[in-house]
Amino acid sequence: MRTPGKQKLRNALYSLYERRVRRSLSPDRIPRHIGVIIDGNRRWARQVGDPVSRGHEAGANKISEFLEWCDDVGVKVVTVWMLSTDNLSRPADELEPLLRIIEQTVEELTAIGRYRIHPVGALDLLPGTTAEALKAAETATHDVDGMLVNVAVGYGGRRELADAVRSLLLEEAAKGISIEELADRVDVEHIARHLYTKGQPDPDLVIRTSGEQRLGGFLLWQSALSEFYFCEALWPDFRHVDFLRAIRSYAQRERRFGT
């Protein structure tokens, strides 16, 4: 058990190191778009002996902190994966409280008034109250001149690609374009224009917490040329210095864009 004196010294050294990392960041090496997979809420709850819902609450509280950190260093777009399509099959006694937490979190982010909220996911798979909360947040923040926050709820990368292709086919069919004509001229840009994130820059950096080193279907199309940063900390324990280290790691890399 740490004594108060040792804890005070530890906190002072931590703050000093944090400021040192912050000063090392170059403004021209900050990612424009960061995607984050917030993983580890349930494990965090189990470790501290709390119910799973408490882990989700702690994770939700971390989101607003994370967005402040991104805003502070000049990130323009953040995509936060809050709920996957696979998560929708979780037991009702876990899923329903989680959906309420998501709704509350989105309302709180809207009330901040600094972020433009954009739902990313298959809203038709969500309960009506959750879908309406996401749509209301987007409408309420439509004219906000601030960081764009993609809230990925009911999101799956394969579902997004299927939806994009479906949207493309319907659009071209409405113009009288045959399948043969479309197959002859379709390219990657046609599909990109029908993604949930259409018109946005692809993520420069994708962060995943909890030590898992996989994307799990997150932004499959958009992350083709992204840099990745995997952090051991569970999401509720993700600290400002962990974020700064991720940005520093990104800044130190020589991006090859697939070559």
From TrEMBL:
Cofactor: binding comment: Binds 2 magnesium ions per subunit.
HAMAP family according to UniProt: ISPT (MF_01139)
Enzyme active site: 39, 87 (proton acceptor)
Record bears the keyword Cell membrane: no
InterPro entries in the cross-refs: UPP_synth-like, UPP_synth-like_sf
Residue stretches in coiled coil: none
Keyword Metal-binding: yes
Its EC number(s): 2.5.1.-
Keyword annotations: Magnesium, Metal-binding, Transferase
Functional description taken from the UniProt entry: Catalyzes the condensation of isopentenyl diphosphate (IPP) with allylic pyrophosphates generating different type of terpenoids.
Cofactor entry: Mg(2+)
Protein name, per record: Isoprenyl transferase
Binding locations of substrate: 40-44, 56, 84-86, 90, 208
Residues the entry annotates as binding Mg(2+): 39, 227
NCBIfam families in UniProt: PRK14828.1, uppS
Gene3D superfamilies the record matches: Decaprenyl diphosphate synthase-like (3.40.1180.10)
